[in-house]
Amino acid sequence: MGEAFGFLSVLGGAAPLTRRALPWFPVVGAVLGAVVGGGWWLTQQLWPAPVAAVLTVTLAAALTGLLHFDGLADAADGLLPHAERDRRLAIMRTPDVGAFGASVLVLVMLAQTVALSATNAQVLVVAALWVASRAVAAGVVATVPYARPDGGLATALIEGAPRWPGLAVLPAVAIATIGAGLAGFISVVVATAAGCAVVAFARHQLGGFTGDVLGAAIVVSETAGLVVLAARW
Fold it and tell me: Taking the complete model, does pTM exceed 0.90, yes or no?
């Protein structure tokens, strides 16, 4: 458990990363989602909705140490421009953030903030979305090739990776449905599809996934789910 929390959040300590972390990915998502959802509810009691939304997005980013947002920016810089596969991988490894990464990062954070400000806090749905996004990441490790032949951050997760943690999407759908009915159900389904779409695009562009792709899939999944939740049901 400590490996998963250390890899996916600032709540865990330093620990060698192995495939044993994968079954705990959805658990980490549940804990982080519950904290973020609880923070959303609490801030809505104290501030106007836009302020509460900004504070909630800040909390979510802080709990992950901005790791997933960094992955999103790097993935956007590598996947979106015209380039050869090796060049894409090299771009994603550089610490710089380019125009594609900066633009996508701003748009995603804006979408999250506006979506959160447009609806009442739904703690169960947020927890479910965070579970589903981490379940997608866990499932990707077990089913999609790793794109870097020379290895990388996620290499330690791959060998013998179990597939079943990806099935945590199913209880996430049930939890969201309990929390918000049809809106919750659709939000988690769309979030799962969005995360898978990011991975599918990365596989097309790179031949597989990287750690940055996992981070991007998590953030895009969360964002898509929040946007759907904010729709006029």
Answer: yes
Name the packing angle between helices 123-143 and 169-206 (round to 10°). 50
DSSP lists the bridge partners of residue 140 as none
Please choose, from the candidates 51, 9, 62, the residue with its C-alpha nearest in 3D space to the C-alpha of residue 31.
9
How far the first Cα of the chain sits from its last, in Å, is 38
- Give the separation between CA 190 and CA 210, rounded to whole angstroms: 22
State the number of CA atoms in the 13 A half-sphere of 82 facing the CB: 0
CA 199 → CA 94, 179, 207, distances in Å?
20, 28, 10
Q: What is the pLDDT of residues 121-164, one digit of tens each?
A: 999 999 999 999 999 999 999 899 999 877 666 676 777 788 88
Two structure tokens written together for 107: 């748009």
CA–CA dist 9, 31 (Å, integer): 10
Q: What is the DSSP letter of 101?
A: H
CA 143 – CA 148 distance, rounded (Å): 15
Closest listed residue to residue 135, CA positions, set 178, 87, 191, 89: 191
CA atoms of 213 and 203, how far apart (whole Å): 10
